[in-house]
Amino acid sequence: MNAIEAHNLYKSFGTVTAVDDVSITVKKGEIYGFLGQNGAGKTTTIRMLTGVLIPDSGTVRIGDMDILKQPLKAKMHMGVIPENGTVYADLTAEQNILWTAKCYRMDRATREKKAREILIRLELDGRKDDLVRTFSKGMRQRISIACAIVHSPPVLFLDEPTTGLDVISRRLVIDTVRHMNREGSTVLITTHNIEEASALCSAISIIHKGKIIATDSPEKLRKRFDTSGFIEISFEQKVQGRMLVAGGISRAEPLGDKWRVYTDDADRAVKDLARIAEQNNLKIVSVATSTPTLEQAFIEMTEGA
């Protein structure tokens, strides 16, 4: 059974079509990325998947539950971190978590234990008795996440969870996402941060102007539009560009104290460079290969759509 299934979702606001025939399938135990520019339709899709918005057409299932027919039951199986946090500013950090846990019908001992564990994990145990109104944006987002995961949800939705956060808060959010996934939660995360999606997700859908234009693993998406790469290499001795001519190398350009060597076959090019170095008594100081990035593929896809 899949954790999330959506088929042919459509949503418009007046004359504006926000989501146009979107279908996604998220396997149980997966971290699934929903990647797109601002305004691409990510948040509208998340709101339909979580039952906040009713689609004009289409269906959504969370496990074996239809979100439209069994909304309360389905929502009890999910945790949601919306784009704008939903914590109560006039409650303390701990009170927010305990109140949310109570809404999920957790007994008092269990909710108190979970609250302590989560506050420690998110490095907020020292501020547990402070009102959330005194917290920074990053700290508020951590409390929002704490409330979403207190009941160990089988499915976790995160809508742009790290936007505008400081480095420490961002790291804690990402670490918590990975922890929840290891503990058994299926995760769907929307983002326009390409690096974040590449590092976290095993599968990614790219949405553009309300339509999904590609779905695949980050590695396969990277390779879809560009198979060329380059190697940066530096030698202890001075080298002339003509010395780097070889079958696996298309061209070589100086780059500071290094050479950037372009190739369609990194394996062959590295072997050619090692042979050239040995034949010319050159000592290699450093060598690094570069492959096409997910960002390059994303730009290719969205510019042409």
What can you tell me about this protein's structure?
The structure is a single chain. With 305 residues, the chain is of the alpha/beta class. The chain folds into two domains: 4-223, Rossmann fold; 226-291, Alpha-Beta Plaits, CATH 3.30.70. 34% of the residues lie in helices and 28% in strands. The protein is built from ten helices and 14 strands. The protein has helices at 42-49, 71-75, 93-103, 108-121, 137-149, 167-182, 194-200, 218-224, 266-279, 294-303, and strands at residues 4-13, 16-26, 31-35, 57-62, 65-66, 78-81, 155-159, 186-191, 203-208, 211-216, 229-235, 251-255, 258-263, 284-290. Strands 6-7-8-3-9-10 form a six-stranded mixed beta sheet, sandwiched between helices. Strand 7 (155-159), helix 6 and strand 8 (186-191) form a beta-alpha-beta unit. Helix 3 crosses helix 4 (108-121), helix 3 runs parallel beside helix 5 (137-149) and helix 8 (218-224) crosses helix 10 (294-303). It is elongated and about 75 Å long. The model has no long low-confidence stretch (mean pLDDT 89).
